[in-house]
Write a structure and sequence with these properties.
homohexamer, alpha/beta, Rossmann fold, five-stranded parallel sheet, Arylesterase (chains A, B, C, D, E, F), hydrolase activity, acting on ester bonds (chains A, B, C, D, E, F), SGNH_hydro_sf (chains A, B, C, D, E, F)
């Protein structure tokens, strides 16, 4: 029977290109690479929103960027799900949002709770597995707008992988450190170029396969 | 270049089966049929949420069912889009939501405005084409819970096709009457069985193809 | 010392013209007529929003039309106030909003409470006088969109004047029946033409003057 | 060990007196009677809010009357709980709120789901038992304000007991029909006089005792 | 006649035990101690919510933790009230919430205003007395999760007593410094053990008695 | 034909006097000075709210202070508009709100987008010109309450003029540096005395005249 994977993320999942200031080609985005690798028996849903936070409001946008407020709707739209991959936290590094690695961890914990306590349709008790992916650490950039917007983010984001790993262990979730296979571009210090986003998709395949029992 | 189609709808798009009280198989849902027909050069995104309304709150749910509040987020997640297919209005027929065909038309108008005034990323002015699809009219049912929940809906929903057609003309949108190719099941009076949801997907292919310029 | 009057209303206060489908000339709107009549020692603030309700949500709009949610902000912006004239209720007649004269009365009561319990700046205890104005009753119209949008409104709106008068008496507010000097236009059944909106401004002068102690 | 019972309700639980237009004496309110009957080993928390609905917004009030929006906060404040008694639905009978017995049932179902999916502190999985209490049917009244506010409520509220009983059975909740021991006063058609509210407290004792395993 | 006291607080009022990671026994919580001391002629309502802030949003929780948004509902539920004891501010010390003593003072001022401008039922003008209680200062802890969550809180919370005292004087409220009789436990740096929470209840008795005119 | 100018601001536009702790006389507020200078052919609307931010929530107030949430309503109330003057950002300097000049710039950008994407009534595409006015830099003050509330604001606000100028250039808006003609008073470090607010009105006349094509 077909399995379904939800990729819940931000611009790193959407496929923002710091070079073209547009969106990476479909084939270059990590959810597409993962989908191709997993084959036709798995539906992979890409739900990446530029600027999405874990659980913080951002009134600077013309849509709801609080990941915790939108997640229940998305879980219902794509129910039944077998695996939810959550890669969020980069936007939490903005000082006007939160600015602290510890805050992103608390937000991620909230998202896990939302999945675990979700009222799945038709009374099913069993929910999907959860895979937490820490975004690659921010790097220094000459782009002054991004440097200002993410002030302090290089240091804070470097702590995310280890904190997310502990959280995943505590909550019985899978964990993957995107920084182990991908690096952010110095063009803006936050995003992934095409090669790095593809690398992430390839690296997630075995983890997803294992968690899906394939 | 790849084209992208967003299918924004409710349980008729999600694929609710009144027989199994679960979800239709992937291959039977109309967005899947449409995707298969359009081929690999078109990405079709299925965004069907059980209970979604056009623009009305429904506090009976554990997620946001107001189609107008969620649409901007979804438009950003899947930007750039070439075509947005909106099939909503059935849940507006519930008296506790709205209960009037005219109310669904006003809600649909709001959704059109949201697409037209959306702030597309990177300053693009051009948005997607919009195809309005009127849901098939509700039919009588022996299911007393659904009959009560949608009291008056048989009469009101019968007016939707003609009202939506006028709105689409006025606003320069495409229009398709799902009732011309699909019938709701008497099992609950609202939903489509597998054959009818497949029929809808097949019927939408030529319309979508034309609007996409394929 | 200068006195300040706030005119808090809907399209009848904004000056919607059913003929031009635009806005009445500045000089024809009732707040302008009232301002001219009261002279330079009184500042008259026109705060009319198309579609504003007394205290009901309207998610069909791209802004907040719930009069009760916005009023506190407006009271602060124009503090200190000597008189608040509230003419609302016509949009409550829409069945998707409320559809009942009694509901408009309850909404008006809520607005009165908001003024009475407002936390005036700098600890002043004394708030402004309140003048309740019942909108002129809706009339029959050949405009089918408006007829549908306000179905039942002719009967319901005819009850507003007497219900508002009782409420004003009970709450110690002033009252004026706009229907005593102005009639809605059959062009859409709801709005006032230029002559009728001017008539309302002229008729409000003595009431406002008395309530302002001028 | 001490047991805790939460009484979540509206003015019938608060103890509104249609005679004094104030609050019944502490000893006359049904939660107090129940507490006295259950003895010092049971803490009974009275959480009755005038105007509270099951799950519908009421913007006519200066506080949040939507029972579904406030319940999670109250569940946390009084956690750990052994029994939640929910007596709501009378205010749903107001046409500006919902006006339909079937709508109240849907709202009650939402409240049950909120208790069942609540994230109890410290990772406990086990939540409290739920006892659904249908409010006594509204009766005819000469009070014109209440008659208008609850138009149609006599007929609709008469259906609540049987609909709530079915819901309770389906969801595995306890059920008690308050109309079997108490009658609403013709003074306003909605509320209970002191004798009737005491009677309700007495009648709930054995049910509560059984559900608490005492 | 019976007097009523509302204790509006956070986990210090709820009775969170850093030792058991559960809730203190009923008899050990300060509102229970206060109730026992005041005797049967006074009803003491314990409204402590883990994580409650003065007036700041916390989207990390599954319920509304903003004290200012919930207070009006609670005031109505327990109306008529003779005394409101507010002990909040500890959670404001979290950097993701506010992180500044001055911010807690502003939040406390907002809560005072909400009580003062509350629309008491049945048109009563007179509201309850207000007693501001500053939470005991945070202390150093080896618990790394709490240390991170409340980074900077030791210094900031030490300023609360003096700032709250000034605010209480300015606003005509009573004031009590909980730090004068209770110390936070080094187990997590924030909470009170059973002995300290009991001590607080005992110490509040004479203040409450005086403010209640007993 | 009459032109309309909307002045959207905070206490500097409302006319808060740090001396009287009240409101400057009508004739001294900058919108009044501007109106007098522009003459009877231009309607100038003063919409200044104490505490208004660009796009940040402030739950310490009893009304909505988030400039981005209220702006669409105000744009509709005063439609059609020829020029919108936005002078905001001072309240963003409060650490509990945002505390960073860069955050105010992002908020201002959001306001510009709201004007540009606004759905003007009757299908007009053309919106008003936008004039960004940077508030005069905060100065040191002996007022300890204001010094605490705006900690760090002297440095941050000094950056606003240059950042707003760049934003205005990028977005095709007009720009005026209020600090070039007005200074904040050391009485509280934030506000303008009567002479300085008049000076601002006089200085804005030629800019407004040019942008209005007068």
């Amino acid at each position: 029977m077909m399995k379904t994977v939800l990729c819940y993320g931000d611009s790193l999942t959407w496929g923002y290109s710091a070079e073209s200031l547009g969106r990476h080609d479909f084939a270059d985005r990590w959810p597409s690479v993962l989908a191709a690798a997993l084959g036709p028996e798995v539906t992979v849903i890409a739900e990446g929103l530029n600027g999405r936070t874990t659980a913080y409001d951002d009134h600077l946008a013309d849509c709801d960027r609080n990941g915790a407020r939108i997640l229940p709707t998305i879980l219902h739209s794509h129910d039944p799900l077998d695996l939810v991959i959550i890669m969020l936290g980069a936007n939490d590094m903005k000082p006007v949002i939160c600015g602290q690695a510890f805050g992103a961890v608390q937000g991620m914990e909230r998202l896990i709770e939302l999945v675990r306590h979700h009222a799945w349709s038709f009374g099913r008790d069993e929910g999907p597995e959860i895979l937490i992916v820490s975004p690659p650490p921010l790097c220094e950039t000459a782009n002054s707008a991004f440097a200002a917007m993410f002030a302090g983010g290089v240091e804070q984001s470097a702590m995310l992988a280890s904190l997310y790993r502990d959280l995943a262990d505590e909550k019985g979730c899978g964990f993957f450190d995107a920084g182990s296979v991908a690096r952010t571009t110095p063009l803006d210090g936050v995003h992934l170029d095409a090669e790095n986003t593809r690398a992430l998709g390839r690296a997630l395949e075995p983890v997803a396969r294992m968690m899906l029992g394939l």
